[in-house]
Write a structure and sequence with these properties.
Elements (H helix, E strand, L loop, with lengths): L11 E2 L2 E2 L50 E4 L32 E7 L9 E7 L11 E5 L1 E5 L5 E8 H4 L4 E2 L1 E7 L11 E6 L10 E2 L12 E3 L6 E2 L2 E2 L4 E2 L12 E6 L6 E11 L5 E3 L5 E6 L3 E6 L7 E6 L5 E2 L3 E3 L10 E3 L9 E4 L6 E3 L6 E2 L2 E2 L4 H10 L5
Parallel strand pairs: 4-13, 17-26, 24-25
Antiparallel strand pairs: 1-29, 2-28, 3-21, 4-8, 5-6, 5-10, 7-8, 9-12, 10-11, 13-16, 14-15, 17-21, 18-19, 18-20, 18-22, 22-23, 22-24, 26-27
């Protein structure tokens, strides 16, 4: 394998870089909650405090699923880049063009009260301000269930791409349409939330997806309980917020525990999940923890994150759950201040396994992950070359 001098030259030797699976990247000190709207007794948020389980709470009926224990398999060294999450939204990581308009734009919509039993929610939009018969394109786009508000209302999302859905950098009109059953035609919704009426040629606007523009739509999240979003002959930018995932976003996703210690069997391992109350005290979300049983050296137990609002996990072992084998981990990479609390960003398939090698040596990543060492860090143009080696060591 040849070693060419990379563009930008060498800056330092002996630099160590982690294989993406050997540990999780942390985008910063923690994900901030969005500004805006009310979290009871606390701060504000776009769709309120979306954490306590509506109604009866979480996992009050029935027991957690039985985990699966399997030997740890070591993956091939070539991996895809770790999927990183933006502070405002897990899914809405956008590539911005020179115009400041993203190449894709994800819209989120919380259905209003009364839409609980609707089967479908669709966007009805027009790409520009020419509403004549042969004018700008109008289209329907079905939204997908994405999340849940604190009071149990569904949140839907739809990914728009610039070429097909907003070629002029935004929309001329936008409506959210709800349908009681699958048989209803697009043109005959059961209910509609209007932002700018699509079929009213006299009211079409220029709602930009450029966050720095004066005619920016206002955000990517709209709460249907705000009612219609039109304002006179325009739209109300103040009713739009930046979307942040709730603490039920990873519900029922896979999590794992790997015993990397070479000699000791961990007995009676359990996973405990928590959600902070409005004072920040961690409250256990289940009536009992998830039992992972005994975990032999070099094996991994897999289990599911509870179908509940939760954001912290910790592990214990031994009789009477007396052996502390982890800190309290916030898996939404949010800022933590409590004793023995740490944070990381959960990522399905990439950063979901607690790799135990003693509490001090533990990390999060993928089962069987290994470290890869690099001989240099590059700067300026060389940064792109360094990351190519980091994510695909066989490319250099």
């Amino acid at each position: 394998m040849s070693r060419e001098r990379p563009p930008g030259g060498y800056r330092s030797a002996g630099a160590e870089r982690r294989h993406p699976g050997a540990g999780c990247r942390h985008p910063g000190p923690g994900t901030k909650r969005r500004a805006g709207a009310a979290r009871p007794g606390r701060n504000a948020g776009a769709h309120g405090r979306t954490y306590p389980d509506p109604g009866t709470g979480s996992h009050r009926n029935g027991h957690p699923p039985v985990p699966t224990v399997t030997p740890t398999a070591t993956p091939e060294p070539t991996e895809q880049p770790e999927k990183m999450y933006a502070a405002k939204s897990v899914d809405n990581v956008q590539a911005v063009s020179k115009t400041g308009v993203p190449d894709t734009y994800t819209l989120y919509f919380a259905v209003p009260n009364g839409w609980e039993n609707y089967k479908k929610v669709k966007i009805y939009a027009i790409v520009g301000k020419n509403g004549s018969v042969n004018g700008d394109k109008k289209y329907y786009l079905e939204m997908q269930l994405a999340d849940e508000t604190e009071d149990g209302r569904k949140i839907y999302s739809a990914v728009l791409n610039k070429d097909d859905h907003y070629p002029y950098n935004g929309l001329g009109g936008l409506e959210f349409r709800g349908y009681e059953n699958d048989a209803i035609a697009d043109e005959a919704p059961t209910s509609t939330i209007i932002i700018v009426q699509v079929d009213n040629n006299n009211q079409l606007q220029d709602m930009s997806f450029n966050p720095t523009a004066s005619n920016y739509i206002g955000g990517n999240y709209y709460d249907g309980n705000n009612g219609n979003g039109n304002k006179g002959n325009s739209w109300d930018q103040t009713k739009w917020k930046d979307y942040t995932v709730s603490h039920k976003h990873f519900a029922k996703k896979a999590m794992a525990f790997e015993n990397k210690k070479t000699s000791a069997t961990l007995t009676n391992v359990k996973a405990w999940f928590y959600e902070p109350d409005k004072e920040g005290t961690l409250i256990q979300v289940d009536e009992q923890p998830i039992s992972l049983n005994d975990i032999q050296p070099g094996t991994t137990a897999t289990f599911k994150i509870p179908d509940a609002f939760c954001s912290f996990v910790r592990f214990t072992a031994g009789d009477n759950d007396t052996e502390e084998i982890s800190e309290y981990y916030n898996f939404y990479n949010e800022k933590v201040t409590g004793e023995k609390q740490k944070s990381f960003q959960y990522s399905e398939g990439q950063c979901y396994c607690y790799m135990y090698n003693g509490i001090e040596g533990a990390t999060w990543g993928r089962p069987g992950a290994t470290r890869i060492y690099y001989d240099a860090i590059f700067f300026q143009d060389g940064i792109e070359w360094r990351y190519q080696r980091l994510f695909n060591p066989q490319s250099q």
